[in-house]
Amino acid sequence: MELNDKNILVTGADGFIGSHLVEALVKKGAHVNALSYYNSFNNWGWLEKLENIDCLEDIRVIPGDVRDGHFINKITRGMDVIFNLAALIAIPYSYSAPDSYVETNIKGALNICQAALESGCQRIIQTSTSEVYGSARYIPMDENHPQRPQSPYSASKIGGDAMALSFYYSYELPVIIARPFNTYGPRQSARAVIPAVISQIAGGGKEIRLGNLSTTRDFNYVKDIVTGILQLAECDKAVGETVNIGSDTEISIGELVETIKKLMHSNAMVVPEETRFRPVNSEVARLKCDNRKIKELVGYTPQYTLEQGLAETIEWIAKNLENYKIKIYNV
Ligand SMILES: NC(=O)c1ccc[n+]([C@@H]2O[C@H](COP(=O)([O-])OP(=O)(O)OC[C@H]3O[C@@H](n4cnc5c(N)ncnc54)[C@H](O)[C@@H]3O)[C@@H](O)[C@H]2O)c1
Hints:
Layout: E1 7-11, H1 16-27, E2 31-37, E3 60-64, H2 69-76, E4 81-84, H3 91-96, H4 98-119, E5 123-127, H5 152-171, E6 175-180, E7 183-184, H6 193-202, E8 207-210, E9 216-217, E10 220-221, H7 222-233, E11 242-245, E12 251-252, H8 253-263, E13 269-272, H9 292-298, H10 306-319
Parallel strand pairs: 1-2, 1-4, 2-3, 4-5, 5-6, 6-11, 7-10, 8-13
Antiparallel strand pairs: 9-12
Helix pairs in contact: 1-7, 2-4, 4-5, 6-8, 6-10
């Protein structure tokens, strides 16, 4: 399926990955309808800072809420494809507000699927996460790796994926589960480790306050992840499938910090901060993606090395430091 000239709804379009996806879809010639989480300030999040795109002219911005089934039903009419990226995604906040994670990540996915079924939508891409696997029991981790909900966030994403897949099995709704591993890049919030490190260094701090340094992750530049999501959306064979998007590389947070320090010519010291550590059994020790399935399906090949992606991210964060509250722990 080609995406150009299609009517496309992107939920979570106001967020980090969603805003990059909107840019890529406009470039492809799609008609983009961008759901931005409603607030009374009329603030459309990162949609207001898109590159080479006027959010008043080139796309249709729809303020709203995925938790509202009636609303989702209305905005889904006439859509050919839906990318569901709306979610609450911070793990620490999920410890204190799990109810809202269920409402947004599970009920939200249900509302999208129900509305898509009624409107005859041709393709639904549900965005999953590698957090559904919990700590690696073997590496690299393929799509058959057991799932372990080590946080309420993870549990809610497992639930959202399951809800979407159940619509494929029960009603033949053309659902694809795209499962990115850790993603980073311009516009990511400081709740994530890479912006947390870069913003503290760019702010001139001599100390970088962090949590666990020994955990490992498979980090992916946002433009690569967006390419993978789009390739999967266009792939008929991916319907009904769950597909990892990752690089099959692994780096510890400690090594990552050293890499960033080198790129930023910094000699700041890492200082552990108690509040930034996850509860022991909730901490995901290791993640590394087996990306053979997406390679076989669509020939996915990441284009950015970690150093290249970090360099672009550093440049962007340094220029946009006013978006980061460096002195506090951003949950
Ligand atoms: N960032 C990562 O490393 C990563 C990795 C794997 C998967 N993901 C998944 O990718 C998706 C996007 O994540 P992101 O990193 O861009 O996070 P993000 O927080 O920047 O984006 C999520 C967006 O959802 C919106 N949202 C929240 N509640 C909503 C509601 N009730 N109604 C409508 N919109 C609502 C928010 O306004 C936000 O902009 C999520 O589904 C996440 O689980 C992210």
